[in-house]
Design a protein that fits this description.
The protein has about 200 residues and is mostly helical. The chain is about 75% helix and about 0% strand.
């Protein structure tokens, strides 16, 4: 019961935030306004989301990444596991609320404070990937190669989301994820249609 109440409060805060951002822009939206619209106190907003940027960056799929990756076959290459998990989560996010997905990626690209906070939060995702990669490869999660590979993946996926937003969300996001992950299997090749 308590967990359901927490989830409901998080959703209410997030919904209020996005409505205010759509109406008046990110910079003009304050924690106090968010609290008032969500009918909670400003301290409650900050208890659930330590910074306004976290409201944009966190979602229900973040905590599932590590467990979903562990559920994939142990002998499957990590890039294939990621492709499967990320295509599924991108599809779920887009299906649930395509406009929200577009707004979030636009804010990640256009708002410097959100982009900076995103870089901080990428290290959390990277550490989760390190643990899974280490289990798959028999390496230590702190090995340079494990860390570099994991953070390379996280950074590349962040750039795929930025690319999607910068190009007006015209591309198919799961296809962009596939293109991005292909780099980790085959490297960078000559473009098909050179400019």
């Amino acid at each position: 019961m308590r967990e359901r109440k927490k989830l409901k409060t998080r959703r209410t805060i997030r919904t209020a935030t996005y409505a205010l951002i759509e109406e008046q822009g990110y910079e003009a939206t304050t924690v106090e306004q968010i609290a008032e619209a969500a009918e909670v106190s400003p301290s409650t907003v900050l208890r659930y989301f330590p910074a306004k940027e976290d409201i944009v960056l966190t979602d229900a799929y973040d905590p599932l990444l590590e467990s979903e990756l562990r559920a994939r076959p142990a002998d499957e290459p990590i890039v294939e596991s990621l492709r499967h998990v990320l295509r599924r989560s991108a599809g779920l996010g887009l299906a649930a609320d395509p406009e929200l997905s577009r707004l979030r990626t636009r804010l990640m690209t256009e708002v410097p404070a959100v982009r900076a906070r995103m870089l901080e939060s990428m290290s959390v995702t990277g550490r989760a990937l390190c643990r899974v990669i280490a289990e798959r490869t028999g390496r230590d999660p702190g090995d340079l190669e494990v860390r570099a590979f994991a953070m390379g993946l996280v950074g590349a996926l962040a750039e795929a989301a930025a690319y999607w937003a910068e190009h007006g969300h015209r591309d198919d996001l799961p296809a962009l994820v596939d293109r991005t992950l292909a780099l980790f299997g085959g490297g960078l090749t000559e473009p098909e249609n050179p400019r």
